[in-house]
Give the backbone structure.
Amino acid sequence: MANEDYIIRPAEIEDLHQVMRINQRTLPENYPYSFFVEILKKFPKSFLVAERNGEVLGYMMNRIEKGLPGVFTSHLRANKGHVVSIAVLPEHRRKGIGKRLMIEGMKAMKEYGAEEFVLEVRITNEPALAMYKSLGFEVVREIRGYYHDGESAYLMSRKAENIQIS
Ligand code: ACO
Ligand code: ZN
C-alpha cells in the first residue's frame, strides 16, 4: 500500500486554506472561509483531515443538527450528524482515505450525540455513492433539483448505533 504514512486528525485553523483549495478543485459546492471556520469552531472533533508531511490530502466536514425526526430516529429533536462535505485529492483516491475519513468522522459525530448520519449526494456521483453504500448508507429519497445547476440529490442516511469503534 502506498498510503501508510498519512494520518487522520482533527483539522486546525491553519489547515483551512488547503481544505478550501481541495473543495474548490473537486466539488461544485463551495463555501466562504467563514463557513469552514464556523463549522470548525462548533464541531472541532468531527472536522477531519488526512495529512501527509504537512500536505492535506482530503477532508471531511460535519455538523450536528437537531431537527425534524430522521429515518431511524422517530422522536422530535433527534440529533443528526450531517456530512456537509468530504473530498480527497484526485491523485490520492482509491487508497481508502475517503472511507477512513468517513469512519473516524462518524465516530466523532457519535461522540457529539448523533443518533443517525445524513448526507446529500449528486445522483450521478458514482464514486461517492459507492463509498456511502459500502459504509451502510441507504437512499432515503431523491431531492429533485437540489443543486444550483438543477441536478438532483439523493438524501442518504445511516444509523449511528452500530458504527464500529475499533
Ligand atoms: N468507482 C467505484 N467505486 C468507488 C470509487 C470509484 N471511482 N471511488 C470509491 N469507490 C468506493 C469503493 O467501494 C471503495 O472501496 P474499494 O476501493 O475497496 O473498492 C470505497 O468507495 C472507498 O474508497 P476510498 O478509497 O476510501 O475513497 P476515496 O479516498 O477515493 O474518496 C471520494 C472517495 C471522497 C468520494 C472521492 O472520490 C472524492 O473526493 N470525490 C470528489 C468529491 C466528492 O464527490 N465528494 C462527495 C460529495 S457528497 C458530500 O460531500 C456529502
Ligand atoms: Zn447536506
Residues 26-27, 83, 85-88, 93-99, 119, 121, 125-128, 130-131, 134 surround acetyl coenzyme *A (ligand 1) (CB under 6 Å). The chain has four helices and seven strands.
